[in-house]
Design goal:
- A 7-stranded mixed β-sheet has the order 2-14-13-1-12-10-11, sandwiched between helices.
- Helix 4 (103-119) packs across helix 6.
- It has helices at residues 22-30, 41-46, 58-67, 103-119, 148-151, 164-181, 184-191, 225-233, 261-277, and strands at 4-9, 32-35, 49-52, 74-86, 89-95, 123-128, 131-136, 199-206, 211-214, 219-222, 238-239, 251-254, 283-288, 292-296.
- The longest helix is centred in the middle third of the chain and has 18 residues, at 164-181.
- Helix 8 links the parallel strand 10 and strand 11 (238-239).
- It folds into 2 domains: 4-53 and 212-302, no CATH class; 58-206, no CATH class.
- The chain is elongated.
- The chain is built from 9 helices and 14 strands.
- Helices cover 31% and strands 25% of the residues.
- By secondary structure, it is an alpha/beta fold.
């Protein structure tokens, strides 16, 4: 039996300026639009991976995969990042391997920050230059933090929260920024043309879940490190190919790191719908981060009285 595919896509407003070709517009017009209402990238991923208990503890999962010692502690990722101020506030512009941190650079930053986190009651530990962890007692109250992959490039003013729990973390974050701003390694980074590490991004907090499983057998294919954590914990995932590739099993392709909307249409959506038309797929779903799904099936071709759509928005 042919496999099913789902394209995990950004919100539809990213595509509003793109005019669709005739065949694609016709197929979408004959498909089923389903308003899910549960928007956001995390909601998308939860439709394919289920944790028990149902909390979003990616830090504990990643720690267990790397070191096998997540145990009964609570964990929080506190990764080095580059945040750039702009006219509206600040934006997260560097995270992960994009910072090109060496092991020596990371060790120097961590040595300066360990006393600060220790005074706050957290043990800072590092498994690689760009993966930093905070260990704490299970049951420690933690606010909800956005995943860095979701926050990249966005206005961080949207993340401001005035609850006491968040205020405590904002104070700690400000102290971290002071230490990093004055650190000599950042001067070396500037001389090498690299962005300075001027903050940490906390995310994925919680304890190790009892189980992580794929929903209805779906496999995730992604370039996103946080999605790869989920995929590995649920029994394995696939690396996202550079363009549409016919899947051998039901696969959700995470396209959030395909930056150009035109490339999403040309390299993914057009060939995927053509594979459906030819009967090489049994089902194609488009899952948008704003809470809308488009369900496409081959037999919908007989809905000849439906009008083509002009844009994805």
């Amino acid at each position: 039996m042919a496999a099913a595919a789902c394209l995990l896509l950004p919100a539809r407003d990213r595509f509003e300026a793109i005019e669709l070709d005739v065949a694609l517009a016709r197929m979408l017009g004959r498909g089923d639009r389903i308003e899910i209402g549960d928007d956001g990238r995390r909601a998308q991923l939860k439709r394919f991976v289920r944790m028990t208990p149902a909390h979003w503890s990616l830090a504990a999962l990643a720690r267990q995969q790397e070191c096998g010692d997540a145990g009964s502690s609570a964990w929080l990722r506190a990764d080095p990042v580059h945040v750039r101020p702009d006219i509206n506030g600040a934006r997260l512009l560097g995270w992960g391997d994009g910072l090109q941190l060496s092991a020596e650079d990371s060790a120097a930053f961590v040595a300066a920050l360990q006393p600060l986190f220790g005074d706050a009651g957290f043990a800072l530990d590092v498994t690689s230059p760009d993966r930093w962890y905070l260990r704490m007692e299970a049951g420690s109250p933690l606010p909800e933090f956005r995943d860095p992959a979701e926050a990249l490039g966005t206005d961080l003013g949207d993340d401001i929260d005035t609850t006491p729990q968040h205020r405590r973390w904002r104070t700690l974050e400000s102290e971290v920024q002071v230490v990093l701003h004055n650190h000599p390694v950042n001067q070396q980074c500037a001389r090498r043309g690299l962005p300075p590490v001027n903050s940490v991004w906390c995310w994925g907090g919680g304890v190790l879940p009892q189980s992580v499983e794929r929903v209805d057998g779906w496999t995730l294919a992604s370039r996103d490190p946080s999605v790869r954590i989920l995929a590995a914990a649920s029994g394995g995932g696939d690396e996202l190919p550079s363009a549409w590739t016919l899947p051998e099993r039901d696969t959700a392709f995470d396209l959030h790191r395909v930056v150009k909307p035109e490339a999403v249409i040309k390299d993914w959506l057009v060939p995927a719908t053509e594979a459906l038309r030819q009967g090489k797929l049994r089902l194609l779903m488009l899952d948008f981060a704003d809470g809308l799904r488009w369900r496409l099936e081959r037999q919908q071709k007989w809905r000849i009285f439906r009008r083509p759509v002009q844009t994805l928005s």
